[in-house]
## 1
Amino acid sequence: MGGWLYRRRRFIPYLLLVPGLVWLIVFFAYPLTQVFLASFWSGSVQQGYSFSISNWTNYPDAITPVLPHIGRSLLYSFAATVLTLLIAYPLAYTIAMRGGRFKNLLLFLVVAPFFTSFLLRTLSWKIILGDDGVVFGPLKGLGLLPEDFRVLATPMAVVAGLTYNFLPFMTLPIYVALEKIDFRLVEAARDLYAGPWRRSGAIVGALVGGVLAALLAMAFDWSIPITAVLAASFGAFVGSVFVSEAFVRITFPLSLPGVFAGSLLTFIPAMGDYVNAEFLGNPDTRMLGNVIQNRFLTQNNFPEASALSFTLMAGILVVVVIYTKLLGTEQLTNSRI
Amino acid sequence: MSDQPLLDRPVTRRAVLVGGSLAGFSAFLAACGTQGTASSPTPGQTATAPPAGTPAATSAPPTTPPVRATYSTELNWANWCCYLDVDPADKTKWKTLEDFKKKYGTTVNYKEVIDANEGFVATIANQIVAGQDPGWDIITVTDWMVARLIRLGWLEKFETANMPNFVANVRDVYKAQTWDAAMAYHAPWQTGMTGIGADTTKTGEITSVKSLFEDDPRWHGKVEFLTEMRDAIGLSMLALGLDPRTPTRDGADKAVALMKRAQAAKTVRDVKGNAYTEDLAAGVAVLVMAWSGDIVGLQAEAPNLKFIFPTEGVMFWTDNVCIPKGAVHKGTAELLIDYCYVPENAAQIEAGVAYVTPVKGVQEIFAASADNKALATDPLRFPPAGLEPKLVPFGILSDEDETYFNEQFATVIGD
């Protein structure tokens, strides 16, 4: 028996792959094929469906009326990705570089929200962001906000929900990347006069802040010039005061694989998400995920729902390929060190 | 105008239902008034004889249903919010279902899972088409949806021989439905109105349905519409002076344009199903399209909320209990439906839900009771005859028109 197994030991890796492959075939490849075939169906639940290649018109029929939703999905997911990055990077940096003996506890706190359900976490934002809730109630009481100010049922609430829900997906990869950095490189850079960034920092900070804020302002329907100017000033301040040249030349480039992974882990699920838009938004903030959910579960329109699902998948694939080409981890890690 | 026999009017079946409900209602009052059978009810027994002249009265005298040896120990019922009486002793329980359990040993898994007709039926459609258990033994849907489900063959036929109280006590006006004249697939659960729900301390006096579409600082950003197409388009048509009894595509276009204008002006906060009650209770919405009984249910917690009967009228509809195809506890479901048609039990439910009951004898029980006397004259539970022209049912739509209306309305919902 042992000898028989030993002679065939080169097959063992394939044997070990079997459970994973079966799982993938049953729960990924098969359903995906089904959904793809369903996108070429015509008919209804009541009358049954029939497959025909000539039903490719399902695609344009399904996509044309939801172009605004697709636009919103892109905009909100992008905004959420940028915001998670802005929040997660300093957070991960602090934990990795300054965490000390609290490192594990801090990491646990980042992951702790995952111990409750996604749905509950999202619904709790309805309470936090409530019109007269814990945040806005006191501010309104002090007269700092107008009485009819609200965040719920606006794009801002949807983006806030997305940002919050996907924050750990951004934080953890960046943390891992930062943690791996050999700090002696930074020390060497400092020895070689890589001090505070000053003027360059102010310029780069202002540019980055201004451009990102202008894009966010589009998502939130805010005044673009005012937001951009405020954010540019803030960016210039941060760039010149807090950022050192050692960070720009060593730490940040080395952490880019984490940023890259985190951005994908945030952007992709955010594109397909419908829970945040459903509970925190209103009809003007519905995303592509809501449309797909509605076509599948409310209208039972499987052909259009499948066509939209496949379009979404293909779209994300294109975005990811472009992103990989521009910021691919291979070149990054190879060229910088 | 009430001299003309309402049931003979050449109008839609909905108008027949509504008109009939009031004419039949007064006839019923007269009948019960002379018989006075409800004055000394015995608990657990049917006390009310149906009005004279009802064929059912002679053919099927009301009795307690034959107690069969085996009822299932569980039953699954999907319903809307605010549609059953809360147990005063334990607010997490339903009094009627507790009583039912005591009597028959059946635990009813009663879930307020229905937020909108289309959305709910979609959740059971696949199981029904595949011939599987839909997961519910009783579902509660609006009359137009019942008509559709019957047409699709998605409902189980009642064993009416086992439902003597239902046969005897359903009010006559409900028997005129063309889509189920024999009442073998549906039992009316509650009839209600769609009007305006408002926190009048914030909005001031509201009288017209037009207020829903006006931009006013008092309710800017705090208006909510319903996702039920017939309610939302119906109220919008009333605001435009159009008649929802005879809905046209042109009317739908205008109604949708009216709603979209209000949305564009950011007057509207959201478009919701039954979940609008949460926003209204929380005070983040102050002026909404609302279902009559819901508001009464909310008043216990938020007394400043009012259901407003707009001068233009209200939408009028009936929700029905049905047994979906493939339900595993059909016999017990029939037993429970029949149980709810015992007038005393119906009165107990009605005291808690504030809609119009389809069961005979309830008003008399209220009138004779010490605690609930006022309910007998509550216009939300028993709309007075003078209100009849203002109770507007949505007209019948052809399949093509229904699709068209839904497509137009989808732009309001945003999906």
Note: The mean pLDDT of chain A is 89.
## 2
Amino acid sequence: MNSFYRSILHDIFPREGSQYAADVDAMVLLLTGLCIFVFLGIMATLLVFSIRYRKKNQRTDVPNRSSNTWLEVTWTIGPLIIFVGFFSFTLGSYLKAEIPPDNAREMFVVGKQWMWKFQHEEGPRELNEIHLPMGGPVRLVMISEDVIHSLYLPDFRIKQDVLPGRYTQLWFTPERKGVFTIHCAEFCGTDHSRMDAKVTVMDPLEFDNWLKSVSTNSTLVDRGRILFESHGCVSCHNSDTIDQAPSLADSYGKTVKLDNGDAITIDENYLRESILDPQAKKRAGYRPIMPAYARVFSESEVIALLAFLKSYSSHRLEIDSKREPGESQ
Amino acid sequence: MNPSPMQTDYLNIETSLKSWLLTRDHKRIAWLYLGAVLFFFVIGAIAAAMFRIELLTPKGDFFSPDFYNRLFTIHGIVMVWFFLVPVIPATLGNFLLPLMIGSKDLAFPTLNLVSWYVFVVGGLFTIWTVAAGGVDTGWTFYTPFSSVYSNSNTLTAATGIFITGFSSIMTGINFIATIHRMRAPGMSWLRLPVFVWTLYSTSLIFILATPVLSTVLILLFLETQFGMGFFNPVLGGDPLLFQHLFWFYSHPAVYIMVLPAMGIVSEIVPQFARNKIFGYRFIVGATLAIAVIGFLVWGHHMFVSGQSLYSNMIFSFLSFVVGVPSAIKVFNWTATLYRGSISFEAPMIYALGFIFLFTIGGMSGLFLATLSIDVHVHDTYFVVAHFHYIMVGGSILALLGGVHYWFPKVTGRLYPERLAQGSAWLIIAGFNFTFFPQFILGYMGMPRRYQSYPDRFQTLNVLSSAGAFILAVGYLLPFLYLTWSLFKGAKSGPNPWNSDGLEWQTSSPPIKENFAHAVTYGFRYLTEEAKSNGVET
């Protein structure tokens, strides 16, 4: 019998692919217990009153309106305290789940009707499938080429909408080997229910072998550098021409001033927008001479450029020479 | 004004088709609305029956994916805008509001009729949408799918909703004006029946939220027809702006659906417990609080949409807070039973069923308000189960309770009590069968709007479909026996429930002018003496 109950629980709770998933399940069990307790209390009261005060004969007196201020205050403040308490209690784990650690392995995801494209920094691309090493945090940087999708990993209790026009992110730490499912959770048209993908979580060593077996000649950064050079970006955005255009070396993560006086931190979304539509948020002190590349680069190419720009450093030659192909962080 | 000796009432005073279609009598307009919303309910229910058949098997094998998408879209559009939003205010509300406050009619009888015609015109666009092959955007019309990628009749569907919005606004204005200006002498604000208070709150939401929906539909039209960029990132817009505007209406719309239902329950429970409602002022306060706070929680539909972390935290907090007034109501209904003299006729079974299901629905809302739980269950069947517990378990049960309770008032006849009680139990059972498994499906990770699904979800889906069948039978029964009772039911007399409510202190069915004499309302609950003065036929 015990195994029967366990198998029911096993069915209700999807696999726990990470410690975070187990934390969410614990929270759900706590809230369920709390709700069942209060629910049974209310229902028992209803039942007891229904039996105790069931109609025996026609009531003849006209009852007065009744109210009890202290009772009302109690059952107003009581739920409020419980609700706010639960809100505060669970907020921490949410914030932890929202803010990715700095050492996370980065993956780029492009969603389109009705497929998922994954890009490893080391170069390999995967379709409707990703391989990940167990134990390390992974940060997915995601964008859609058409409508809104939502990348949903039920076994990790996480999802995030994938928008056209700007990046959203999702991070998690796979802590269990196996194959897990990705569903699209935001309705996206005809084959919405078939927009699945597979996540294969492997031992880090196994993963490195896998990475070698599929490795491409160029890393994502290499591809970005080639684009940066072949499209002439480099002719304005270099350290010799800083009066024409800002140098992009070492710029990622810096806060800069815009010509309307606002300050902005150079992040993935700002870089993407400035490539595709440079006049949208102009840096202070530069003439608006850069053409828009909205019709030039695909989302995959923008991703390669971003990977390059994020690593673009005045010391990049030193860094690049140290970097082995297929090296993971 | 002189009632003739042969018992004329609002139904038999004129019988021509013209007298119905051009009537300005709020009681007849309530019937017109009832006919229209029932028509749409049937459309929505047929769509639901069809996709529940599709969901019997994991593979999408009964319909094409595009057809399936059209089924759940029309189910949502029709059930939200053409059934749940108007049904209680425009039928029971329309009929009872003037009677409950001792008035001859609403403040603007012609506007009331116009609102029905506007509703019908909006409905015609919806029928056109279905006839032309349907729409596949989901009832939420999220951009850029609806604006750029959908090859279906988005424009006609949106036009229908846009037009229907004006009928909501007209009803809202009419109710607010009526409650402010048409109360009988002595019917002060704190003597108003709770149902009237909920209609008042609902009307406030009608006139404050509906224009935002109209605006977003106009923006959608301008973007798709004239290329103005509001929501499409390619044109410089932001798809999240659409969601913000949409939910700014559509979250308060949930309260449009559920507040009048709470009002009905607040009338039925004291009546059948032969008690006064416990904590009247607090119930009224909670009603207004829900209407106000309900405007501040729309962002909880967007926790995983990409809105900022701070927005998420604020909306999560406020969503917990909006749960408090609902809890207050449940506690007060329970306390109303205390030292009552309770009987369990069909309306009471529906009202207690409402409390049972609404409490489950409300508690499941706490899971959704919790950020880290919502991230997992958002856009899964958990959400589907949650809002059906509120809107079907809540609103429809209260509606049916109200329909049974006021059936003698409206028709002057009695419904078959035993059959009605049996149907009520059947509906409650069928409902739980249908929707409880969906909580589990959602937590297991089944996303909503899925035509095909992994095999491990099949058992619960079959249960849910079987429950839907029971529920369908449960709906059919009242439809049949109430239709029968309308013509053949035993005469009820003016006040079969022996109620204190002002609406019962006149003949049933009422005369065209509602009350034979000008009403003066002495105090909240009439004494026997005042009652006998009021009943004149």
Note: DSSP finds 16 helices and no strands in chain B.
